[in-house]
Design brief:
137 residues; alpha+beta; 4 helices
């Protein structure tokens, strides 16, 4: 005997399909969201290379080698600078040929090409130099 089908909102089940498959077809398909890509591997930063030191970085000037004039005439003596300028703290010009030293008040100060510079008169005298002014010797 054939019984009439009960009226329901759901379509009749078809053979060979289980309820999970029916649910997949009934609900809109939702794809799982793709996982975000891992952040790009950062390249290691190049090792910082120290920049060459400059005179401004070095602070007070310290010669790489001992100053030959300091070795020859003692502390307080300095060699002439390559550019001809006065070494800091050494205003006294020494003339090794005459063994005279010239202070800034000497009339020959500007004309004197020093072979050595001194920090003060006492240092020049200790090195064997005489004052340019005979009255001050």
């Amino acid at each position: 005997m054939v019984t009439p089908a009960a009226s329901t909102d759901e379509p009749p089940a078809t053979e060979g399909h289980d309820e999970a498959e029916s649910a997949e077809h009934a609900a809109p398909a939702t794809q799982p969201e793709p996982e975000p890509a891992p952040p790009a591997a950062e390249e290691p930063a190049p090792a910082e290379q120290p920049e060459p030191a400059t005179a401004a970085d070095a602070g007070p000037e310290e010669p790489a080698e001992p100053d030959p004039m300091t070795e020859r005439f003692g502390p307080g003596a300095a060699s002439p600078r390559p550019d001809g300028s006065t070494p800091p703290g050494h205003p006294i010009k020494g003339n090794a040929d005459s063994m005279l030293f010239h202070t800034p008040d000497s009339p020959r100060y500007d004309a004197t090409e020093p072979e050595v510079w001194f920090s003060d008169e006492a240092t020049a005298k200790a090195a064997g130099f005489a004052h340019w002014d005979r009255t001050k010797r």
